[in-house]
Amino acid sequence: MADSIRYSFGADEHLFAEVSDSMSLEAFFKGLAVTRAVERLALDGVLDVCLANASFQIRFDPDRIAPHALLDAVREAEAGAVAERTLQTRIIEIPVLYNDPWTHETLMRFRDRHQDPGSTDLEYAARINNLADVDAFIAAHSGAPWFVSMVGFVAGLPGCRSCSRWSSASGSCKCPNTCARVPIRQSLRWVMAGASVASTRCAGRVVTKCSASPRPRSTTRSRGWLT
Predict the structure, then answer these.
(1) Which residues contact 146 (CB under 8 A, 6 or more apart)?
(2) pLDDT tens across 139-191, in order?
(3) pTM (2 decimals)?
(4) Which residues have CB under 8 Å from 218's CB, separation 6+?
(5) CA-based radius of gyration for the chain
(6) Is the CB of residue 99 less than 8 Å from the CB of residue 75?
(7) CA distance readout (Å), 37 to 14, 43, 101, 103, 190
């Protein structure tokens, strides 16, 4: 907890806090400790406290709490916050079908927007992560639990990080965004961008490289799991 958090105001109603310029377990748990401390203060005028991977944001009513009074209270909470590496959580097992025909059909329609039009998303992801083949990537991607570290971008979208690989940047599977936006995105799909995965609840724009779809009820086998 030695490094201080960088604070800045956004318009009239938001206080943004940058815990770290890079994502790590240390930054996450530090942000978690501070936001929980702020919530316990129950400050009049604080409307929302939203934690992200390496930052958090507070929405407030400036007519009920002065911006700098809020900032002073948050800094005081930061000084007394203790980062604990224990989470009270639920474990949810989600069957995921990798390399399924529905996702494959969609991604192959827009290969001109991909870094490597000659390969599939999974083949490309395996290669840039120095893995032997697609099966090796699936094993690395699905072989450890993931936890929801933030919710954002659209309402209800969970952003997940790997429990075993987040503590080591060199051990994370990573995939860049596509070179250009893809106009179609399947709903109920797990997607990967950077070292995070997220579940897309609705159809829309695709900006990610690696994708997999939930297993249909009629399918009896799954090539991988995200938990």
Answers:
(1) 160, 161, 162, 163, 197, 226, 227
(2) 888 887 888 888 766 666 777 777 765 555 545 677 777 777 766 666 677 77
(3) 0.68
(4) none
(5) 20
(6) no
(7) 18, 11, 47, 42, 32
Q: What's the pLDDT tens digit per position in 62-102?
A: 999 999 999 999 999 999 888 777 778 888 888 888 888 88
Place of tokens 């690696």: 210
Mean pLDDT of the chain: 78
Burial 180-194 (b: 16+ CB within 10 A, else e): eebeebbeebbbbbb
Q: Which of 163, 160, 191 is nearest to 178 (CA)?
A: 191
> Residues 109, 115, 119, 124: is their CA dihedral positive or negative?
negative
pLDDT over 50 (residue 211): no
Number of helices and strands in the chain (H, E): 5, 13
Token pair 């919530």 in the structure block, residue? 39
- Give CA–CA dist 193/198, Å, rounded: 8
Residue that the structure tokens 């992801």 belong to:
125
107 residue type, one letter: L
